[in-house]
Specification:
CATH superfamily: Immunoglobulins
Distance between the termini: 80 Å
Structural class: alpha+beta
Number of helices: 1
Radius of gyration: 22 Å
Order of helices and strands: HEEEEEEEEE
Strand content: over 45%
Helix content: 10-25%
Strand order of the largest sheet: 2-9-8-4-5
Shape: elongated
CATH class: Mainly Beta
Length: 117
Amino acid sequence: MKTSLMVLLIVAACFAAYAQQPSPAPAPSPHMVSVEPANGKVGDVLAVAGENLQKDLVVKVYLTDGKSDIQCEVTEQTDKAIKFKIPAKATGRLALEVLTSGKEPKLIEQPVKVTVE
């Protein structure tokens, strides 16, 4: 009886210590706010401005029409900006989309659009 009470107290103490530890903060979400220029041709380099765009958060950039995604070649990347080339298969009015890093990568469509001529 004393042994089971002692085990119960130890388990309770471990649970209490675990419950008091703060959970890790979620990774900040990438957010694009503008692209310059807003239109271009295949091979042109466009510059996107925003926040949380660094390589450890954004691993890939795509142009999407909502049905198919076309991966872009990133030429420069910082926490506030990404420069990318318009890929060969891109055409029309397309939204930018990012693939996040981490255990559960996510494709996040951004509120920024580009017109490819």
